[in-house]
Amino acid sequence: MTDLFKSIRHVDEVTFYWLFRFTRWWRDSSLALWVSRSGDGPYYVLVLAIIVTLAVEGSVTFMQRTLIGFAIELPLFWWLKNTLRRARPAMDRISFRPAIKPADRFSFPSGHATAAFLFAGLAAASFPAWALLYYMWAGLVALARVSLGVHFPSDIIAGAVLGSGIAYFVLQMPI
User: Fold this and answer.
1) CA distances for 117 relative to 73, 130, 150, angstroms
2) Number of domains in the chain
3) What is the pLDDT of residue 92?
């Protein structure tokens, strides 16, 4: 079993370095930074406020689901991250420098990917005409985290699965 985990970790690291090099143009243009920042917490509040203010049909239910989803996501994500304690790419690699300073020492799962896929899942259920756009944005937020050098691919995959799972769970709740 240990060999299996070592093999998975090796593939994850090789993929990380390949993606980091391949997305250099995106990082150098600052586009990756802006896409990553679009997945920061305050912007979710801003989007909710705009949707509710515009009285978009289904906005109140969307807001309720989103608040419940983030009430579940935040403590679960922090508990997982601080229990599993996987070091970020730059932590044990002296020669590697990420493009941004990470908020903390641990990387698994990616909080940005978790939140983006949670939001995308809830938004897609509430406003299905734009579903593809929400998921494309969430995928770009996740990829930006690898491009900026603060997450391994498995971190963002785990975040996407966790966020999507929480969205599914919240959508099953009667509101």
Assistant:
1) 11, 14, 18
2) 1
3) 65
**pTM above threshold 0.85:** yes
Nearest residue to 114 via CA among 165, 43, 45: 165
Read off the CATH number of the domain in which 136 is found. 1.10.606.20
CA distances 175 to 88, 95, 154, 172, Å, are 38, 51, 33, 9
Instruction: Tell me the pLDDT tens digit for each residue of 105-123.
Output: 888 899 999 999 999 999 9
Range of the structural domain that residue 100 is part of: 2-171
Provide the token pair at 122: 């809830």
Question: What is the three-class DSSP state of 7?
Answer: helix
Using CB atoms within 10 Å of the CB of residue 81, give its burial: 0 to 12 exposed, 13 to 18 middle, 19+ buried.
buried
